[in-house]
User: Fold this.
Amino acid sequence: MRIAVCLLAGLLALGATGCGKDTCSAGKTLCSGECVDLQTSVLHCGQCGAACPARNACFEGSCSEGCREPLAFCDPGVCVDLSVDLRNCGVCDFKCRAFENCVQGECVFACPENLAFCAPGICVDLQTDSFNCGECNFTCTDQQTCSAGLCTFGCFPPLVACPPGKCVNVGNDPLNCGACANRCLREEICLGALCQRCLAGKLACNNLCVDPMSDRNNCGACDVQCMNGRRCLNGRCL
Assistant:
């Protein structure tokens, strides 16, 4: 009887949340086998199956022509803030590249957390980079390595020295995994000094396996961040 009830709920797309895998997180409703936000979905606006007409957006569960200021209407029928949207920066469909944020409608280079921006335009770790040790453009000598932001003649455990004079943790460094110069594949992460492939549907970003369909810091691709409280839904910041 329970199975029959669940199947019936799925067919009617009522968004029931008590049937095993057919559950959705808070604020989402199950419609046609997919968890959607009835407040913003142009295919399910306000209720399952209520699609908005062409050139309409779904805002607070109602279809409306255009968007309320300061938002702009962009395909496929979403209201976005062109001043901060990474996929619609300044104008619709203008996507910022990796390591860029959308600031006041312009794509601006931004380094990932814990990295610093140094000339000639690279992101570096000031704690371990022998050419930018402690600060940009401070280079250690050939006999020294950079450890904890200081040029030393050795590395502080658990770090080890790897060419070209950099202290790394071979236990979690995808470029030196288990040993110096042992580089993991693009779809792998370094965990426990071993290169390991992410599970299906996951993406290797900054040595973490993430879900690009829902991760706010890697939405659709690595380092694409959803700003200003927006969520990542199906690989898009909404």
The helical segments are 2-12. Residues 1-21 have pLDDT under 50 and may be disordered. Residues 1-64 form one domain. The first strand starts at residue 29 and ends at 31.
